[in-house]
Amino acid sequence: MAVWDRGVAVRVMGAAVALTVVFCVLGWALGAHFAPGELTLITRLVRIRNGALTALAKSLTTVGSLLVLGPLVVVTALWCVVRRRSTAVFVVVGAAVGVVAIGNVVKLVVHRPRPMTLQLVEVSTASFPSLHAAQAAAILPAVAIVLTAPGRARALAVAVAGVLVVGSGLSRVYLGVHYPSDVAAGWVLGLVWLGCMLHTRGTSGERAHPPV
Questions:
Q1: How far apart are CA 168 and CA 164, in angstroms?
Q2: Could you count the other beta carbons within 10 Å of the beta carbon of residue 113?
Q3: How far apart are CA 50 and CA 141, in angstroms?
């Protein structure tokens, strides 16, 4: 069975639609409401801002941007093509394209306003969910998984990816452009979508290439 066939397409599209609906409903439910402590956390982060922390936050937030993740996906996919690992290409590209598409649709539908704080970076889209958090959560672990063999190397790579995912997400709150709930939703969206890609890969029937 091919890595991409009608059955795989149906599963991927079904998962994408389901996640889009779930996160739209979640975003509507949140609306202008906030989880306990969200505004307090934002206020405290604003109070501790300084030059060093802001420079670190801006670096970490770049890690979750397509400016960094886009080329990373392209290079990883090309490497996998050269190695004839079509399943790995499917996982990485699918994780990236899917999370960006779902996240942007949810943003447009929910249209949650950004926090009313001093924002340290320019933003032009809605707040929910944090696309930086979602992109990082879906793409960085995917790259770590496909570029390493099962074992300690993969565990270390995934751990490093996890640190970058957390740091990138927290930086969005520090910079004043997201509520914590936006970031949490982004993390969940990214990880769940990556899980969908890995599960679909596992049922695609490919056996000719090394495991992802």
A1: 6
A2: 11
A3: 30
92: three-class secondary structure by DSSP: helix
> Burial, 79: exposed, middle or buried (Cβ in 10 Å; 0-12, 13-18, 19+)?
middle
Evaluated on CA atoms 37, 38, 43, 47, the torsion sign reads positive
Which residue's entry shows tokens 């970076």? 121
Q: How far is CA 205 from CA 7, 9, 15, 34, 86, in A?
A: 11, 14, 19, 44, 12
Beta strands, E only, 20-148: none
Q: Which residues have a Cβ under 8 Å from the Cβ of 3 and sit 6 or more positions away?
A: 86, 87, 90, 201, 204, 206
Buried b (16+ CB within 10 A) or exposed e, 7-19: ebeeebeebbeeb
Q: What is the pLDDT of residue 120?
A: 87
Q: What angle do CA 7, 192, 178 make, to 5 degrees?
A: 135
- Going from the C-alpha of 128 to that of each of 9, 131, 133, 147, the distances in angstroms are 27, 8, 11, 31
Q: What is the pTM of this model?
A: 0.88
3-class DSSP state of 174: helix
Please determine, for residue 203, whether its predicted confidence score (pLDDT) is greater than 90: no
DSSP category for residue 124: -
Q: Higher confidence at residue 38 or residue 60?
A: 60
Could you give the CA distance from residue 140 to residue 93 in angstroms, rounded to a whole number? 12
